Amino acid sequence: MSRLVVVSNRLADPRKSAAGGLAVALGETLKRTGGLWFGWSGKVVENGAAGEGELHVHQAGSVTLAELDLCQEDHDAYYRGYANGVLWPIFHYRLDLAHFESGHLSGYRRVNQLFARKLKALLKPDDLIWIHDYHLIPLAAELRAIGCENRIGFFLHIPLPPQQILAAIPSHEWLMRALFAYDLVGFQTEADLLHFAHYVKAEATAETVGANQFRAFNSTVQAEAFPIGIDVDDFQRLGRAREALETFESTRKEYSRRRLLIGVDRLDYSKGLPQRIKAFRELLQRYPENRHSATLLQVASPSREDVDAYADIQHELESLCGAINGDYGDFDWMPIRYIHRTIARKRLPGLYRACAVALVTPLRDGMNLVAKEFVAAQDEEDPGVLVLSRFAGAAEQLREALLVNPYDISGTAQTIQQALQMSLAERQERHVALLAKVKEFDVHWWCKSFLQKLEHTR
Hints:
By secondary structure, the protein is an alpha/beta fold. The chain has two domains: 4-229 and 443-455, Glycogen Phosphorylase B (Rossmann fold), CATH 3.40.50; 232-440, 3-Layer(aba) Sandwich (Rossmann fold). The chain has helices at residues 21-33, 72-91, 102-120, 139-145, 163-166, 172-177, 190-203, 232-239, 242-254, 273-286, 308-328, 348-353, 369-377, 409-421, 424-440, 443-455, and strands at residues 4-10, 36-45, 55-60, 63-71, 128-132, 151-155, 184-187, 207-210, 213-216, 219-225, 259-266, 294-301, 336-339, 357-360, 385-389, 402-404. The strands form two sheets. The chain has a ten-stranded mixed beta sheet with strand order 3-4-2-1-5-6-7-10-9-8, sandwiched between helices. Strands 13-12-11-14-15-16 form a six-stranded parallel beta sheet, sandwiched between helices. The mean pLDDT is 95.
């Protein structure tokens, strides 16, 4: 196989077990091919010049890490302004939260041009390039413009909205045209792939020239759905380690008289946290047998707290949790334990296993790997129940979960009650089917499938 070159906004040392995410997925192939991982260093240089940045190259075993600094102006326009101020909300169907400023678009393109220039100097003729996520959509077009002829793939980790929503983005034609500079474009779900097909046919009069192959702008692109998974063996191994076992035992002991429900999310408006808390309140109101019995452990990790929309969601969540605990709590029972910090990954399997129900109820999510981690962490003899939003990408695969519409507060409460009352036999039957899918379509399948397709796409 050719050397793999991975490009993402941020990168991690694939030698470190805590790296997670892309490092887990791509680490093996990067190591095997002596690969290169290129991305932003995370460092912002206050007095740097726009469109310029210092590149730091170092070795992590057999993998080369190339990290690029950004100046304050580029960071604010590219990362905060366009990627997270326009693309993130709109791709999650939140037009009302998008902030359109012309300078942000030019900064977004300027940083992608900077990435292209710095990366081009490190490339070999037969390198296979895999670019990741919404921060770097135009990177292949910028590489082509300066003479790069390598095979290039792109994977979008977040949802792709329908044509009418995409068309609300100023310069959406330029953005989507950039995808035709890739040989292969991957999406999380078949629904995302369908949205892409509808857009390019309606807005770019693209011609279908093969199965999921589209031609427009004098270019042809192959598009496919590659639902990302988790490293099941590694996560289950983590669940057998001391930290996870201690977390399981201490949680079970502390809540020995309770039925535990759990939610683990970044604090983000896409996660449906206020709706989830309202549904839990509805559960306590409509099904009083859960009072003094059910406890919701809600972990909401800090995320972009300098942005107004995130501060608003935090205040709303704290207010809702406080009101429920005030109205229903007692000296020996608090309905909701709200934790606004990051829980160590090595403790999560034990926490998941101690809980009877997981609430994974985003309003919109590309995949949501918490759902798959919860399934992988369960005791097969006495598994918990997964309550999953139909608007999470994982819902396409995990049909044996209890699927809910998170906007329907009453319906979600009813489904949570169903989960709490589910028989052992039904729980086991659902879990067997869910675990089989999580294992079959794991992160190694995802990586292998995409790269094999990219190698054979012309």
